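Customer ticket, subject: "Can you confirm the structure for 3-phenylpropionate dioxygenase?"

Message body: Hello, I'm evaluating your service for our small team and ran a test protein. I'd like someone to confirm that this is what the system normally returns, since I don't have a reference to compare against.
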Amino acid sequence: MTSGPEQAGGPGASAILGDHAPKHVRTGRSLPFNDTRHLQAHQFLVDEAYLLDAQHYTEWLDTLTEDVHYFMPVRVTTALGAGFDTSPGMAHFDENKYSLSRRVARFQTEHAWTEDPPSRLRHHITNVRTFACDDDAHLIVESAELLFRSRGDVNEAALVSCGREDLLRLTDQGWKLARRTIYVDESVLRMQNLAVFL
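Agent reply: Thanks for trying us out. I re-ran your input and got the following:
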């Protein structure tokens, strides 16, 4: 069983920046919940959610590999059997480490009006499943995420529901995120902007 960038609509098929991304895919069934690798991957996601909620973005960048690919394709509604549910060549995010670091740097300037005042964020992570890869230094991690975002005192709060497939890599500094593909559950996003990270 394989998934990830090789599947239809994945980063390998439609991402502009995806050529550099690691191509590791899952092997076998999901790991037991008491497997040490699963527990470490789950802790990584929970710790990452804290950093994003607290908007400690510089620290979050340190949890990414240098060749990370961060990808969120545009979802489309198609007939059963069409074989795809994302729009080829279109993405909300198609980013590497450099572009992500530029976004973080912008938050620290006076020009980041979409996050000034900053949003109140809560990343809810659940349904975590972990899969071994073709080498021991990588794991595929699936999760479901619900992002709650509130800005100011007048605007209504917004929600984004999505599924994520991550590739984690074991480094000398512990596990790091090497690839993230985000499959949002709406074709039309109801959030005013996507200045935050999922």
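A couple of notes from the result: The CA atoms of residues 136 and 170 lie 8 Å apart. Residues 36-184 form a domain with the Nuclear Transport Factor 2; Chain: A, fold (CATH 3.10.450.50). Feel free to reply with more questions.
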